[in-house]
Amino acid sequence: METLLNLINEIANNDEMETVINAIKLRQKELKDRATFEALQTLKVGDKVLCDSRQGVEEATILKINRTTADIEIGKDKYTAPLSILKPMEVA
Q: Which helix H or strand E contains 62, and what residues bound it?
């Protein structure tokens, strides 16, 4: 990681910086897509999950699963959350 940070500090112009930024965004999308796919394979309606939220990690129940999101219930509140931020209770 330190080597990567040093290489970033050696970037000399905006074109090189834009190339690095685009590569990072692409890798970020790949990682999110993988997490979504894995969630689709393991989660089902009614499952208790841990959800990374602004308030920290919260327990939630899955009400409905969509292609990339799930409708969840935290307490009495209902939300739509990306599958990539949901983790099964027994795994987390």
A: strand 56-65
